[in-house]
Write a sequence for this structure.
């Protein structure tokens, strides 16, 4: 027996307004990306980048698309700042509203916190407490640390930015639900939810996003079929 409850069947909920913010890799970074994609190996100043299989290559390509890639030391080396610049533009246009930023790799977190000194990591108790005051302009977190049980973020912001991308649909949806339309309504706030996907053009970012959309379409179709079965 399966019970399906969809909030949209009971409340008027507008879908989040999703904007794709596309960035172009600089010529040198693009050359590195193409070489890694083809040869599964790179030589960088801080060490080598080696992908032993397709799964590892996927991670390395997504890292490079975000702006930094892990080497064999282990360490990571920055190769471009295009996504950081895009994040700065989104912040400048936010009208003072704090941003909730989803990152994928520790290198992403380190680079964001360095580029935005007033940002906090809300996956830590101290960072979360600071962000909840509403006086911090940016809170960053990995989607896996923002699942069920994290509440109150919807009172702080209605803007979600995805700095990096991952295949996991569950993590994607849980991150959305931290400040999503239903959460806004529960907080008594009648305001739209804005989502920004920062996408490195011509990289695996597009493939990951397309795969997630396909999963969402399949999931929505299944839920609709289940609803029809109950009528």
């Amino acid at each position: 027996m399966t019970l399906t409850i969809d909030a949209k069947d009971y409340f008027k909920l507008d879908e989040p307004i999703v904007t794709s913010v596309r960035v172009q890799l600089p010529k040198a970074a693009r050359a590195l990306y193409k070489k890694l994609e083809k040869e599964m190996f790179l030589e960088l100043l801080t060490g080598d980048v080696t992908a032993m299989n397709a799964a590892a290559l996927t991670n390395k390509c997504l890292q490079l698309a975000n702006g930094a890639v892990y080497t064999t030391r282990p360490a990571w080396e920055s190769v471009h700042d295009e996504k950081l610049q895009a994040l700065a533009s989104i912040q400048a246009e936010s009208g003072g509203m704090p941003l909730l930023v989803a990152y994928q790799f520790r290198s992403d977190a380190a680079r964001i916190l360095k580029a935005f000194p007033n940002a906090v990591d809300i996956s830590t108790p101290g960072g979360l407490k600071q962000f909840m005051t509403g006086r911090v302009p940016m809170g960053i977190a990995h989607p896996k640390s923002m699942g069920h049980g994290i509440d109150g973020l919807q009172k702080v912001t209605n803007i979600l930015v995805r700095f990096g991308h991952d295949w996991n649909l569950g993590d994607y949806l849980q991150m959305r639900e931290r400040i999503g339309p239903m959460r806004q309504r529960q907080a008594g706030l009648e305001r739209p939810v804005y989502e920004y996907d920062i996408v490195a053009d011509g990289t695996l970012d597009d493939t990951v996003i397309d795969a997630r959309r396909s999963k969402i379409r399949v999931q929505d179709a299944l839920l609709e079929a289940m609803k029809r079965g109950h009528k």
Observations:
- The mean pLDDT is 88.
- DSSP finds eight helices and ten strands in the chain.
- The beta strands are 17-23, 41-44, 47-50, 68-71, 75-78, 99-102, 120-121, 138-141, 159-162, 194-200.
- Residues 204-230 form the longest helix (27 residues).
